[in-house]
What does this fold into?
Amino acid sequence: MIKLKVNGKSVTVAAEPETPLLWAIRDHLQLTGTKYGCGAGLCGACFVHVDGKAVKSCQTTVSRVAGSDITTIEGLSPDSSHPLQKAWIAEQVPQCGYCQSGQIMKAAELLEKNPNPSREQIVKHMNDVICRCGTYTRIVSAIQRAAAEV
It folds into this structure.
């Protein structure tokens, strides 16, 4: 049994210490907003926050984050009122939607560190998350919109 703090709640998961955090989140806690993309840490669909830092949950073991503060897309805002979530809708970012939770979690990390990033800073920071549909221009626009609201 591994004790975690996910979205502000203390939880226990019956998982081996080397289990990827992604599977603890999705399979054990039934929080399916975090997506499995590649399993190799290449696409970024699985980003969650661990102590405020965006990490690839497919490459992070549950034993490594025991006792840390973990936030998933469900914990970013319980009613989808986070400025990034609203901007994502306003800018019509999603097409297939698969990468969106990873994109939003990575963008939230950026805006927490830098509430007014330049376009270049946004592009550089978001480079870890692949959008198969190619909506990068809309992603940048959504982040700029959210930054203006914060």
Summary: The radius of gyration is 15 Å. The chain has a mean pLDDT of 96. DSSP finds seven helices and five strands in the chain. The helical segments are 21-28, 62-65, 73-76, 83-90, 100-113, 119-125, 136-149.
